[in-house]
Amino acid sequence: MMRIAIPLADGDVAPHVGHCRSYLIADVEDGKVVHTEEVANPGHGPGGPPPVFLANQGVNLVLAWGIPQHARELFRRHGVEYIVGCHGEARRVLQDYLAGTLKLTDQGLEGDGCSCH
């Protein structure tokens, strides 16, 4: 089984992996979504910073628009892969990823993969 997390902003992929209100977490088996849940982002509170929190949730892959360098390093340290440049409605991004048709963008992304720093 694979667990995929997507930072959410009103159903779309949030612009920042750590500053979203919640994450869509999907359990995937044999290329199909078998369960989804929305999990609140604890911020930098209980559970550690968002990359550590997601790793502790068993997430293997994060589909995001932007991830700053320090968060990328935390994901790597915890064995969580990530894809940046994802945009649009989160459930569509998930389906496109699973279908192999995910289109990425770097529009608005700066050097560290986050336009907010």
TrEMBL record:
All copies of domain Dinitrogenase iron-molybdenum cofactor biosynthesis, residue ranges: 10-98
InterPro entries in alphabetical order: Di-Nase_FeMo-co_biosynth, DiNase_FeMo-co_biosyn_sf
Matching Gene3D superfamilies: Dinitrogenase iron-molybdenum cofactor biosynthesis domain
Short name of any one Pfam family annotated for the protein: Nitro_FeMo-Co
SUPFAM superfamilies on file: Nitrogenase accessory factor-like
Superkingdom of source: Bacteria
Protein name: Dinitrogenase iron-molybdenum cofactor biosynthesis domain-containing protein
The species this protein was found in: Symbiobacterium thermophilum (strain DSM 24528 / JCM 14929 / IAM 14863 / T)
